[in-house]
Design a protein that fits this description.
Layout (H helix, E strand, L loop, with lengths): L1 E2 H8 L4 H9 L3 E3 L2 E2 L6 E2 L6 E3 L2 E2 L7 E6 L3 E2 L8 E2 L14 E2 L8 E7 L2 H8 L7 E7 L5 H9 L2 E2 L2 E2 L4 E4 L4 E6 L6 H8 L4 E9 L2 E2 L9 E3 L2 H8 L2
Parallel strand pairs: 8-9, 11-17
Antiparallel strand pairs: 1-4, 2-3, 2-5, 5-6, 7-11, 7-19, 10-11, 12-16, 12-17, 13-14, 15-16, 17-18
Helix pairs in contact: 1-2
The protein binds uracil.
Length: 233
């Protein structure tokens, strides 16, 4: 269920304030009935909304997966660098899509983009504990002691991290699972145990793995099943 004013403002030029005004002017009908409040809850998929007796076609949100290459910043605009939006085909750009969280300019892999603010919040909010898995290459050999330190919560200058899972896969390679998304978090965590991250790639969010047929720089829409997997931990 969504708020009527949010649904209308996401689909039209009207702000939520405008919607309130339209409601007060008795210009909005929901399922054929004039409404007197703009914040009522509706199911946009099964509700007809009329503005001045014209049907509002509710277009569903857009959800994209990108295999991010190096060299692109996770932003909508940047003064000097290319952004991930530069990799998105024109046909998806009619909506206000934005990256869900950030990957550093030199980090590669799984990045989601959407125009759905609630969805983005559910993935990035540390309170939701959605797990993110990264492949890491470091400059020094990884140790059992590092696993213990990650597990007990690395102390960063902006506070202690939640316990993280460090799985060593080779001398200098590992998988790291975190459920937060602080600024440069993985690089700073390794910094605290004396290691430098040379390569970083995100490969999983929730239970959704970066599809191996999605080459670097490529983007495609997500299926409903994939959306469920992302939010499923
Ligand atoms: N942690 C980092 O340090 N960088 C990223 O891009 C993602 C997580």
């Amino acid at each position: 269920m969504d708020r009527l004013d949010k649904v209308i403002s996401s689909q039209t030029e009207f702000s939520r304030k405008d919607v309130k005004k339209l409601v007060n002017e008795r210009r909005i009908k929901v399922n054929g009935i004039l409404v007197n409040k703009s914040d009522i809850k509706i199911d946009p998929k099964n509700t007809s909304i009329l503005i001045d007796n014209e049907i509002l076609e509710v277009v569903q949100n857009i959800y994209l997966v990108l295999n991010k290459p190096k060299g692109y910043v996770s932003a909508i605009k940047d003064k000097k660098d290319l952004t991930v939006i530069d990799l998105i085909p024109e046909k998806y750009l009619s909506r206000n899509i934005f990256p869900v969280g950030r990957l550093d300019k030199d980090t590669t892999g799984l990045l989601l983009l959407t125009d759905d603010g609630n969805f983005a919040h559910n993935i990035t909010s540390p309170k939701k504990h959605i797990k993110k898995v990264y492949e890491v290459l470091t400059d020094i050999e990884l140790t059992e002691n590092m696993i213990k330190k990650f597990k007990s919560g690395i102390e960063l200058n902006d506070g202690k991290c939640e316990p993280a899972l460090l799985e060593i896969t080779g001398k200098n390679t590992a998988l790291v699972t975190i459920s937060e998304g602080r600024y440069h978090q993985i690089k700073r965590m390794f910094g605290c145990v004396g290691a430098k991250v040379l390569e970083l790639k995100r490969i999983k969010i929730g239970n959704f793995i970066l599809p191996d047929d999605l080459v670097e720089g490529q983007v495609r829409t997500l299926t409903n099943l994939e959306l469920i997997k992302i939010l499923d931990n």
